[in-house]
Amino acid sequence: MNNRERGAKGERIALAYMERQGYTLLKKNFRAERCEVDLILEQGDTLVFAEVKARSGSGYGFGREAVTPAKQRNIITGAQAYLLQTNRFEADIRFDVLEVDLLTEKVEHIKDAFTL
């Protein structure tokens, strides 16, 4: 399985997990301003911009460690573009990280992983 296939599998697992938790998918792999947001979800009045990090083991560390300040800025820029396109400026927003273990399909949901 190559990196793209691992990422797609991780996103499928993460999305299924989030839907079981009551979140609604608004957009998957949203691209704008040379940025990408893996999952844009909604729960109640809150928009959640989620970064999915899939791992096949612990050899490369935790997925959350790969969400560097530069990656955070990229996600924030993508979120701002989404808010502009959808005119959702009044919504509460949150940035989450979803760590997916591809071997066990376990998801670790890190709410408010970073802020603006």
How are the elements arranged and paired?
Layout: H1 3-20, E1 24-32, E2 35-43, E3 46-55, H2 69-86, E4 92-101, E5 106-114
Parallel strand pairs: 3-4
Antiparallel strand pairs: 1-2, 2-3, 4-5
Walk me through the structure.
- With 116 residues, the protein is of the alpha+beta class.
- The protein has a single domain (3-108), classed as 3-Layer(aba) Sandwich (Trna Endonuclease, Chain: A, domain 1), CATH 3.40.1350.10.
- The chain is 31% helix and 41% strand.
- The chain has two helices and five strands.
- The protein has helices at 3-20, 69-86; strands at residues 24-32, 35-43, 46-55, 92-101, 106-114.
- A five-stranded mixed sheet has the order 1-2-3-4-5.
- Strand 3, helix 2 (69-86) and strand 4 form a beta-alpha-beta unit.
CATH topology (fold) name: Trna Endonuclease, Chain: A, domain 1
How many domains?
1
Top-tier CATH class: Alpha Beta
Reading the helices and strands in chain order gives HEEEHEE
**Can you count the beta strands?**
5
**What class do helices, strands and sheet pairing give?**
alpha+beta
Helical region count?
Answer: 2
Q: In brief, what are we looking at here?
A:
By secondary structure, the chain is α+β, with helices and mostly antiparallel strands.
